[in-house]
Amino acid sequence: MTMPYYASAEQVMRDRSEYARKGISRGRSVAVLTYADGVLLIAENPSSTLHKIGEIYDRIGFAAVGRYSEFESLRVAGVRLADVRGYSYNRRDVTGRVIANAYAQTLGAIFTEQMKPYEVELCVAEVGETPEHDQLYRLTFDGSVVDEPNFVVMGGQADSVTSHLRENFHPGMGLADALKVGVDALSAVSPATAGAADGGPSRLGAQQLEVAVLDRRRPKRAFRRVVGAALHGLLGDGQAGEEGSQVQPSAHVPTHPAPGTPAGLGDPAAPDTAGGVPDTGEGHPQTGGDTAG
Predict the structure, then answer these.
(1) To the nearest 10°, the Cα dihedral for 260, 266, 272, 275?
(2) pTM confidence score
(3) Does the pLDDT value for residue 292 go beyond 60?
(4) Pick from 94, 116, 206, 279: CA 20 to 30 A from residue 58's CA?
(5) 239-256: per-residue pLDDT in tens?
(6) For residues 182 and 168, what is the distance between their CA atoms, to the nearest angstrom?
(7) Closest CA to 211 of 25, 40, 3, 28
(8) Distance between terminal CA atoms of the chain?
């Protein structure tokens, strides 16, 4: 008579944790930092369509590492939860803590009940009215949630990036300074800069980065992607002027910034537009931040 297969609960959880960590370690790092006017999200991501960073709600952002299909399904679920809660009750009832708790319950249930855990690590960021009210929640594959001060780093080289940020990050930094510190930290561990000693690039360029901000100066939707000439200008790589010189003058100057206008450009108090229609504050797009920029 054959004996049935048996493994202790402790061994099963240990194996699942090791499996999830291996999957996450293959992902390139993501850093989320606070700065004077909000929260900065930086990811090493050469893809222009498969985003690691997105928008959940008016003043809530999302960043993730790991398996794209899994964290994208979580992002969409977070957008739907925020939309339903904001519509059913009040927009002020949608907070980063509510979204983080929902993610923690989902990840915890998947980790304990399913054979394969999610290979993801998440950050839910909420920008407050003042820097003291900014919130950064880090969630791991097993549903653990931690409220982090100042910055969050995720991915395979998180320890090295965190050490670099501890040495160079200071609360209240400007956007350009915070971006420089974050990019330098990611560049120090990136495979793309591994050949710097042999004449390769020593710093990640704009084409290898995905950058967004939660700008507290915006009256409603704080999320903005930083792309194009604005990103080159903040990085100081000298390409902003070249791109600007190739832009042909337009016959029409819009009254309000177009969707996806990077933070710091245009009037922060101007209303958002979606297809030319001013945002009334009553609805919210189901696509999250991927349509902005």
Answers:
(1) -60
(2) 0.79
(3) no
(4) 206
(5) 655 544 444 434 434 444
(6) 9
(7) 40
(8) 64
Write b or e for each residue in 149-158: b if 16 or more Cβ atoms lie within 10 A of its Cβ, otherwise e: eebbbbbbbb
Residue 127 to residues 45, 75, 124, 222: CA-CA distances in angstroms? 23, 18, 10, 8
Among the listed residues 45, 14, 21, the one whose alpha carbon sits nearest the alpha carbon of residue 118 = 21
Rounded CA separation 27/160 (Å)? 14
- Which whole number is the average pLDDT over 97-119? 95
Distance, CA of 225 to CA of 261 (rounded, Å): 7
Residue 124's Cβ-count burial label (10 Å; 0-12, 13-18, 19+) is: buried
Token pair listed for 277: 């229609």
Picking from 272, 267, 270, 278, the residue whose alpha carbon sits closest to that of residue 292 is 272
Instruction: Quote the pLDDT of residue 243.
Output: 47
- The strand pair at 277-278 and 135-139 is best described as unpaired
SS3 of residue 204 by DSSP = coil
**Environment class of residue 183 by beta-carbon count within 10 Å: exposed (0-12), middle (13-18) or buried (19+)?**
buried
Q: Are 262 and 225 in contact (CB under 8 A)?
A: yes
Cα–Cα dist 132/5, whole Å? 53
Provide the token pair at 98.
Answer: 């509510």
Q: Judge whether 46 and 188 are in contact, CB under 8 Å.
A: no
Q: Are 34 and 40 spatial neighbours (Cβ–Cβ below 8 Å)?
A: yes
CA angle centred on 134, ends 130 and 137, rounded to 5°: 175
The span from the CA of 151 to the CA of 34, in Å, is: 6
Helices (H), the chain: 9-25, 68-88, 96-113, 158-168, 175-187, 228-235, 240-246
Measure the CA–CA gap between 175 and 207, rounded to whole angstroms: 19
Among 221, 278, 275, 171, smallest CA distance to 54 is for 221
